[in-house]
Amino acid sequence: MRHIKAFGAFWYDFIVGDDWHVAALVVIGMAATAILTHAAKVNAWWLLPIVVFAALAWSLHRATAHRK
Length: 68
Known about the structure:
Layout: H1 2-15, H2 20-38, H3 47-64
Helix pairs in contact: 2-3
């Protein structure tokens, strides 16, 4: 059981890391891309890079906002 907990803790730390908001935004972006691709038949490959870039910019803004 200890190994299973350690394995789960590793993946949580690897995927979520320091900021769960970014991980959540990436998951939402992946879901939106999948929905647009399969349900609406839209070639939505461009959506995920935009979401990742926006999540990174938002995270950097939050991290550096108190330094002004």
